Amino acid sequence: KKRLTVRDIRRAKGKTPIVSLTAYTAPIAKLLDPHVDLILVGDSLGMVIYGYETTVPVTLEMMIRHTEAVVRASKRALVVTDLPFGTYQESPEQAFRTSVRVLQEAGAQAVKIEGGVEMAPTIRFLVERGIPVLGHIGLVPQSVNAIGGFVTQGRGTGAAKLLADAEAVTEAGAFAVVIEGTIEEVAAEITAKIAIPTIGIGASVACDGQVLVNDDMLGLFSDFTPKFVKRYADLSGTIASAVEAYADDVRNRRFPGPEHVTARGPAG
Ligand code: KIV
Ligand code: NA
């Protein structure tokens, strides 16, 4: 079975909602793959896997290693990898060199970069050279230090800026765009106006598709849960009870039981 392509994603606009989740490891990628259209190896891994407070410390080497694992363990979904902070903002040429590594060494099919109007020339540069780009506008976490926190975007005069960003990214040739952390009316207006699919996160049901951080929606990452996350499972709770039961069994010599003994026989 062949993987979905950026063309399949683009063509879904106005037809079927695009389903996306993040994955960073082989076992999770394998579980998601039959059910999602697009797997994002997000730099959110800095927070949910590595325990950083933001995505700023994430390196290209991390993204490449995790992308390799996700690509190996999936066969159907389109795999898109985030270019981390500092590996593409300097120039289109820097973005190109970084993207080549992500496609060539790690096997992703496309890259995602944060930014609207200011990143449009970079997006165009990449797309014209054979690198599909997923845009990302609205709340752009790599700029958290400049924004001053994880703040909702697109309020008041911010609405016109966000629409301009969406149009610039579309015009530059992105195959779709993630819209994060904005108000429903703005997401609806952008989705109606641009020709490429919008994939929302905290941006309402008005978008053409949805993405969530896997660890958030499974209840695996529990440091904090944003309001827009729906929890489909409580894996933290499941893991905590399992580990507690194991510890209790070991301390009370109930594990290993006779059925877990590897081998028996005379010693020596
Ligand atoms: O890093 C990430 O997981 C993302 C999604 C939340 C869109 O960029
Ligand atoms: Na990201």
TrEMBL record:
GO BP annotations listed: pantothenate biosynthetic process
Subunit (UniProt): Homodecamer; pentamer of dimers.
Gene3D superfamilies referenced in this protein's UniProt entry, alphabetically: Phosphoenolpyruvate-binding domains (3.20.20.60)
One annotated GO molecular function: magnesium ion binding
Keyword Cytoplasm found: yes
EC number: 2.1.2.11
PANTHER family: 3-METHYL-2-OXOBUTANOATE HYDROXYMETHYLTRANSFERASE (PTHR20881)
Binding-site residues, Mg(2+): 43, 82, 114
Family label: Belongs to the PanB family.
Lineage, broadest ranks: Bacteria, Pseudomonadati, Pseudomonadota, Alphaproteobacteria, Hyphomicrobiales
InterPro entries named among the record's database cross-references: Pantoate_hydroxy_MeTrfase (IPR003700), Pyrv/PenolPyrv_kinase-like_dom (IPR015813), Pyrv_kinase-like_dom_sf (IPR040442)
General function of this protein: Catalyzes the reversible reaction in which hydroxymethyl group from 5,10-methylenetetrahydrofolate is transferred onto alpha-ketoisovalerate to form ketopantoate.
Binding site for 3-methyl-2-oxobutanoate: 43-44, 82, 112
Official protein name in the record: 3-methyl-2-oxobutanoate hydroxymethyltransferase
Pfam family name, one: Pantoate_transf
Subcellular location: Cytoplasm
GO cellular component: cytoplasm
Pathway per the UniProt entry: Cofactor biosynthesis; (R)-pantothenate biosynthesis; (R)-pantoate from 3-methyl-2-oxobutanoate: step 1/2
Database matches in NCBIfam families: panB, PRK00311.1
Reaction(s) this enzyme catalyzes, per UniProt: (6R)-5,10-methylene-5,6,7,8-tetrahydrofolate + 3-methyl-2-oxobutanoate + H2O = 2-dehydropantoate + (6S)-5,6,7,8-tetrahydrofolate
SUPFAM superfamilies cross-referenced by the UniProt entry: Phosphoenolpyruvate/pyruvate domain (SSF51621)
Keywords from the named record: Cytoplasm, Magnesium, Metal-binding, Pantothenate biosynthesis, Transferase
Cofactor(s) needed for function: Mg(2+)
Active site: 180 (proton acceptor)
Keyword hit for Cytoplasm: yes
Cofactor binding note from Swiss-Prot or TrEMBL: Binds 1 Mg(2+) ion per subunit.
